[in-house]
Amino acid sequence: MSDENNIEPKVNHEKKYSIFQIAINLTVACFISGAIIAATYFITAPVAVKSAAKIKNDAMKSLVSDAQKFNPVKNKADWFTAEKDGKIIAYVVPAESKGYGGEIKMLVSVTPKGKIIDYDILVSKETPGLGDNASKKTFESQFEGKTAADLVVVKDATKVNNIQAMTGATISSKAVTKGIKEAALQVSQFVGGK
Amino acid sequence: MRELWNIFKKGIIVENPIFVLALSLCPALAVTSSAINSLTMGLAVMFVITANNIIVSITRKVVNPKVRVPVYITSIATIVTVVQLVLQAYLPVLYKALGIYLALIVVFAIILARAEVFASKNKVTPSLFDGLGMGCGFALALVSIGIIRELLGTGAIFGIKVLGSWYNPALIMILPAGAFILIGYMVAGFKMWTDHMEKVKLERGEL
Fold it and tell me: Which residues of A touch B (CB under 8 A)?
């Protein structure tokens, strides 16, 4: 008992700061950084929402270039119809898939007959230089005009009707294709059920 | 002034973060598959390392040495988050392009290393130049790796084709394995060059 009493003050004496002071120091640092982030968020959040909406509109325009206006579809969250001269020429629907680096979020434009027009990757964490090539024209252009049945990833250059996997990124290729295929099927189902 | 220039200069060659200090090799392998990716990452790191050096240097007297590392990490994370929020709001296109890189910067060894080794012991101005120099060295190293990998792996530089159709791209160069091989050779080459320079200096000194 007496030994312990002897050791304790010795240890305390060696420490220049008490544990409380150290903890307070870190707490204050975290508090300040939290306050800075909160203040920044408070200012930027409304602007971010606006620019996200603008980007989405631009993305839809680039997906269906002939469209004159986009209308939200009833009962389907985030679905839009692209209209030209009062006729529906395409559906713009969100698609999701799990890739190599996690979730991939896309926007896919599909004709009412179920043919893919184009797609745009909104959020992805695929490997730079490999999987993220999915947003480049060489891979993207393969999808145009294809129906859900054609959307199979192959590594055989002779199968022109299917999707050629990106080199070194088979998982990303499959993930993107799967997401688009599901979107196309959903549109066919929606149009057929109408 | 001369002193500040020396502080700046050492980050580029004598203490190059990638080739000499061998810090933050992970991003040097991961994001250098194209020159433009390397440049974006290099510039982003340069900004964060400089900003963090300044903050660490300003607060160096109030931060308790026992908790300095968590405080530095908090500081880096705050800078990165603020940059992320601002970019998301005002430059969404750039934010989309930087996407995954920004969040990665928080854990870069080189940024913490500069805070610990330099900024926590020096005044604000030298710390600023140290950050700029280290950032420059990092960016230059990344870009040179990126250019070589892109050239050998796709026959292009910054997305512009420079080698004709006769060139059959060596795919391994844009895959991670190629990065390992290339960085190995580059570190060796850098070492040979600095050794040679030292020898030359020594001979001159003796003469």
Answer: 17, 21-22, 25-26, 29-30, 33, 36-37, 40-41, 43-45, 47-48, 51-52, 54-55, 101, 124-125, 127-130, 167-168
